[in-house]
Amino acid sequence: MLSAEDRNLLYDALATRIHSLQGGYLSDSPAAKGTLAGLRRGTGDPQTWGEVVETLPPELAGRGDAMSLPEQAAAAALQFYALHQQGRTEPMHRPGTGLGQALRAVIRSHDAGEAGINRRLSSVLTATTLGESTHHLRGLVTQLRSAQQPVDHARLGVDIALLADPRTAQGVRLRWVRAFRAMTRGDQAPDPNPTAEAPATSQEG
Q1: Residue 93, beta-bridge partner list
Q2: pLDDT tens per residue across span 79-131
Q3: Closest Cα to residue 180, out of 77, 97, 81?
Q4: What is the Cα–Cα distance from 9 to 17, expressed in whole angstroms?
């Protein structure tokens, strides 16, 4: 189980790296654009492995031949940000905006079809493996990109790690659904401390 300390380490590492990449991309940095292009190709590209290793602190590094859970989550989060930011001139990483809140904002602000978002979100919520979860999350990120709706990609990375553990997965799912449904009653302020040690179910999605 990912400890509260490890969650904070993962969030901080991803937030720092994504903020740097975002700043470079929006400043037309060729290096940042090249890095994001590599990340979009996923773990089949050596650049992605390098980015993951450089992003995470030693405490979250894997041992042996298998990727650690934080490494898997970081790889997915970095790729999702790279996909989300592609071709966009506004920042697509927004600290404090959880997935459920972002999806509801798409429906409220962009007149998007709620049925399509519900279908994709349901697929994520019922996925039984990390690979299946990230596959369906990619579809949701693509929908956010089309609507130009930002999300907190560092927080999404932590949530991906928590989804892989049955002891914490339900809390993430509940948080996403509650935020998604609660937004029908009016906008809520973003969570200012998304990696606090409070249980996942008490955090806004």
Answers
A1: 151
A2: 999 999 999 999 999 999 999 999 999 988 765 567 889 999 999 999 999 99
A3: 97
A4: 12
